[in-house]
Each structure stands twice: as structure tokens, then as C-alpha cells.
Write a structure and sequence with these properties.
The chain has 155 residues and is mainly α. It has 6 helices and 2 strands; from the N terminus they run αααββααα. A two-stranded antiparallel ribbon has the order 1-2. Helix 2 crosses helix 3 and helix 4 crosses helix 5.
């Protein structure tokens, strides 16, 4: 194990919304170091959301991110030769990380012409409490609920 914790490098806020969370989202969206392309995809998706819903696209994106943020998850732990799925609360940093990754993953799996279109559709679905990313959160919570009996094994 390492002696000291690796220090977190602070992210720069994005130019349009002045939000660090947007930069974090774009960093996860980025492929092959093409950050400018990733920003263009994100901003295009937000504009599409605003056009489709008639509301502020940025606010809908934040609501979608909140809707897919998990509160609990299960972790595997070996106890006496058996592996148990133990429910545990998710750290704040990991919560946002998981919700961002799920939104992007299920956007990529959608069918549509461009990534911006797929992302916009997934964000709109997630803000309404639908879509793949929201279903993933529900499944995670359901699994934690089902394994509540093993909560006493928590470290």
C-alpha cells in the first residue's frame, strides 16, 4: 500500500456554464484525448435538450445526473469461504463518478445518428426517471435491498 494519498488535481470550470461538474462529465465523455470534440458533443446535446423540452437544458442535465446517482451499492466480501454481497453507502465522490459513467455508457448504447443526439435522449429519459442509466441505479438499489441481511458483515 502507498504511504501517502495521491492528491487530487483541481479541475478547471467549463467556459459556458462555469461548472466543474461539466468538465468532469466531458472528461469522461472524451475519447482519444479529443477534449474539444467532447465539449462540442456536450454543448450540442444540452442545446438539443433545451430545444426538445422547451426548458433550460443545463438544469435538465443536472436533474438527470441527480436521478441516476446511487445512494447504496453492494460490495463482494469473502467470509469463511463464502462470498457475500454486502450493501454499503457510496462515497460522495464515487456517487457522481458512477452517475456520470452510467449516463455516458447508456448513451453510447442507444441508437441514434450522433453521440450528441444519443446523449440528449438519454439525459431527457433520465430526468423523467426512465432510460438505461436510471434502470441501472434502480437495479443497484434493489440488489442492496435484497442483500440487507448481510449488512452486519460491513467493515
Amino acid at each position: 500500500m502507498r504511504k501517502t494519498k495521491a492528491k487530487k488535481i483541481p479541475l478547471a470550470a467549463d467556459p459556458r456554464y462555469n461548472d466543474v461538474l461539466v468538465t468532469r462529465f466531458v472528461n469522461n465523455l472524451m475519447l482519444g484525448g479529443k477534449k474539444n470534440t467532447a465539449f462540442n458533443i456536450f454543448y450540442d446535446a444540452v442545446d438539443r435538450i433545451a430545444k426538445q423540452t422547451g426548458e433550460n437544458g443545463y438544469e435538465i442535465w443536472k436533474r438527470a445526473l441527480n436521478n441516476v446517482t446511487p445512494a447504496v451499492e453492494v460490495r463482494s466480501r469473502r467470509i469463511g469461504g463464502a462470498t457475500f454481497q454486502i450493501p454499503s453507502e457510496v462515497r460522495a465522490d464515487r456517487k457522481t463518478s458512477l452517475s456520470i459513467k452510467w449516463l455516458i455508457r447508456y448513451s453510447r448504447e442507444r441508437n441514434g445518428r450522433s453521440m450528441a443526439e444519443k446523449l440528449a435522449n438519454e439525459v431527457i429519459a433520465a430526468s423523467k426517471g426512465e432510460g438505461g442509466a436510471f434502470k441501472k441505479k434502480e437495479d443497484t438499489h434493489r440488489m442492496a435491498e435484497a442483500n440487507k441481511a448481510f449488512a452486519h458483515f460491513r467493515v
